[in-house]
Specification:
This protein has helices at about 1-20, 50-60, 80-85, 100-105, 110, 115-130, 140-155, 165-180, 190-205, 210-215, 220, 225-235, 260-285, 290-300, 355-360, 400-420, and strands at about 60-65, 70-75, 95, 160, 330, 335, 340, 350, 420-425, 435-440, 440-445, 450-455. The chain is mainly α and about 450 residues long. It has one domain: Cytochrome P450 (Cytochrome p450), CATH 1.10.630. The strands form five sheets. The chain has a three-stranded mixed beta sheet. A three-stranded antiparallel beta sheet has the order 4-12-9. GO terms for molecular function: arachidonate epoxygenase activity; heme binding; iron ion binding; oxidoreductase activity, acting on paired donors, with incorporation or reduction of molecular oxygen, reduced flavin or flavoprotein as one donor, and incorporation of one atom of oxygen.
C-alpha cells in the first residue's frame, strides 16, 4: 500500500515539474510560439481551419509549435519561404524523417537521403530521367501520346459516370513507367492495376490519422500494430523496379563510399512512382470546374490539333498545388530571422507551408478565390508572380520531376477539355472537395463525372 502511494506521489511530482517547466528543452534559440503542454505539445490548439491564421497574427511568418514532445519550426508566407528555400537553399536542404515510412526507406532513395548519398543519387536521378527512353522521343511527345490514349479510353465510356481519379493515376503512372521500364501499359493490365493499387493504398495510409499520431509518438507506438506496419507490408509487395542501370553505376565493392547499390536505386524508383503518380494526379482533381478554362482552350488552341507546350505561354495558369512540402532540416546551426536553428542531428524539423504563399494577400488581390487574373496582365499575357510556388521552390530539394509534372498537368488537362465536356450528377455548389485524408498529402474525395464528347465546329 505504502509503495503504491509513493509511486503515485512520484508520478504526480513528475507531472507537476513538467507543468512548471512547460515546453521541452530544445538546443538553439527557436522562434516563439504557443506554449505547449507536456507530452501533448500544441495538439489541443491544432484547429485545422484556423491554426495558421491565429498563429500568424500573433507570432508572424516564423514560429515554433510542438507536435507532441518535439519542436517544429513553421515558415509561412512568400518572403519567409523564399528566404529559407532560395536564399539559404543549401542550409535548408536537409531532409527530415517521416516516421511512418522510415522503416521502409531508412534514409535510402533520392527523396529521403541526406549528405553525399543524396547528392550522388540526385545527380544520377536527373541523368536517368533525361536518358532513359528520352533520346528517341521527347517528354512532350510521350505525354501527348498518353493523352491521346486517354481520349480513346474516355470515348469508350459513352458518357457514363466515371471515377476520374483512376484515370489520373493511370496516365501519370504510365509516364513514370515510360521512364523506368521504357514502355507504357494498357489501363486494364493486371500488373499495372496492382501497381496503382499499392501506390494508392500507401498514399492513403501515410496520410491517415493513425499515421499522423504515429508521427508524434513513434518511439512508443512502433512496438504496436498500426499503419506503419501496413505501409511496410504494402511496399514489400511492390514489383521491383527495373532501373536498367549499367553495371558500372551499381555498387562498386572496392569503393565503400559508392551510393549506387540496389537498395538506393529501388527506393529512388519507388519514390519516383509514388511522388510522380500521387501528387500530380491529386493536383489534377479540382480542374474540371471552370467555364472560363474551356473558353481559353478554344481561344488559344482550338479543336483541330492537340495542345503543345508552346501554347502554355499564352494560357492562364490554373492548377492548384500541394499545400505543404516534405519536412526539411537545416544542415548546420543556422541564423534565420534573428533565431538560431540547430543542425539536423537534434531532429528539429522545419516545415515550409507552401499553401500560405498561395494565399498571401500581399501577392494576390483575392487570395482565397480561383482567379486567373492573378497571373495575367492588362493585355491578357501571363505575368510572373513570386508567390506562385506550384510544387516547391529553391534549387536544392525541389521536386526532380517538376518539369514533367508541369508538362503533364497542362497537356493532359487541355487535351481532355479540348475533346470533352464534363458533367457531374451533383450541382457545382454542392460538390464537397474535402479530402478523405489529410496528412503528408491530401487524398481526394471519391466522386464521379461524365465525359461527354464536345461537338466539333
Amino acid at each position: 500500500m505504502e509503495l503504491s502511494v509513493l509511486l503515485l506521489f512520484a508520478l504526480l511530482t513528475g507531472l507537476l515539474i513538467l507543468l512548471i517547466r512547460g515546453r521541452p528543452k530544445a538546443r538553439g534559440h527557436l522562434p516563439p510560439g504557443p506554449r505547449p503542454l507536456p507530452f501533448l505539445g500544441n495538439l489541443l490548439q491544432m484547429d485545422r481551419k484556423g491554426l495558421l491564421k491565429s498563429f500568424l497574427r500573433k507570432y508572424g511568418d516564423v514560429f515554433t509549435v510542438y507536435l507532441g514532445p518535439r519542436p517544429v519550426v513553421i515558415i509561412c508566407g512568400t518572403e519567409a519561404i523564399r528566404e529559407a528555400l532560395v536564399d539559404q537553399a543549401e542550409v535548408f536542404s536537409g531532409r527530415a524523417k517521416i516516421a511512418v515510412v522510415d522503416p521502409v526507406v531508412q534514409g535510402h532513395g533520392v527523396i529521403f537521403a541526406n549528405g553525399e548519398r543524396w547528392k550522388a543519387l540526385r545527380r544520377f536521378s536527373l541523368a536517368t530521367m533525361r536518358d532513359f527512353g528520352m533520346g528517341k522521343r521527347s517528354v512532350e511527345e510521350r505525354i501527348q501520346e498518353e493523352a491521346q490514349c486517354l481520349v480513346e479510353e474516355l470515348q469508350k465510356s459513352q458518357g457514363a459516370l466515371q471515377d476520374p481519379v483512376f484515370y489520373f493515376h493511370s496516365i501519370t503512372a504510365n509516364i513514370i513507367c515510360s521512364i523506368v521500364f521504357g514502355k507504357r501499359f494498357d489501363y486494364r493490365d493486371p500488373q499495372f492495376l496492382r501497381l496503382l493499387e499499392l501506390l494508392f493504398q500507401s498514399f492513403v495510409l501515410i496520410s491517415s490519422l493513425p499515421s499522423q499520431l504515429f508521427e508524434l509518438y513513434s518511439s512508443f507506438l512502433k512496438h504496436f500494430p498500426g499503419s506503419h506496419r501496413q505501409i511496410y507490408k504494402t511496399w514489400q509487395q511492390a514489383p521491383p523496379p527495373l532501373m536498367g542501370a549499367p553495371p558500372t553505376r551499381l555498387q562498386d565493392k572496392s569503393d565503400p563510399r559508392s551510393q549506387f547499390d540496389h537498395r538506393n536505386l529501388i527506393m529512388s524508383a519507388l519514390s519516383l512512382f509514388f511522388a510522380g503518380t500521387e501528387t500530380t494526379s491529386t493536383t489534377s482533381g479540382p480542374f474540371f470546374c471552370a467555364e472560363r478554362v474551356l473558353k481559353e482552350i478554344d481561344r488559344v488552341i482550338g479543336s483541330d490539333r492537340p495542345p503543345a507546350l508552346d501554347d502554355r505561354a499564352k494560357y492562364s495558369k490554373i492548377w492548384t498545388l500541394l499545400p505543404i512540402g516534405v519536412p526539411h532540416m537545416v544542415t548546420k546551426d543556422t541564423h534565420f530571422r534573428g533565431y538560431i536553428l540547430p543542425r539536423y542531428s537534434t531532429s528539429l524539423e522545419v516545415y515550409p507551408i507552401l499553401s500560405s504563399a498561395l494565399h498571401d494577400s500581399r501577392y494576390f488581390e483575392k487570395p482565397d478565390d480561383f482567379n486567373p487574373a492573378h497571373f495575367l496582365d492588362a493585355n491578357g499575357a501571363v505575368k510572373k508572380n513570386d508567390a506562385f510556388m506550384e510544387i516547391s521552390t529553391g534549387h536544392m530539394r525541389i521536386c526532380l520531376g517538376e518539369g514533367i509534372a508541369r508538362t503533364e498537368l497542362f497537356l493532359f488537362f487541355t487535351t481532355i477539355l479540348q475533346n470533352f465536356s464534363v458533367a457531374s450528377p451533383v450541382a457545382p455548389e454542392d460538390i464537397d472537395l474535402t479530402p478523405q485524408e489529410s496528412g503528408v498529402g491530401n487524398v481526394p474525395p471519391k466522386y464521379q463525372i461524365r465525359f461527354l464528347p464536345r461537338q466539333r465546329g
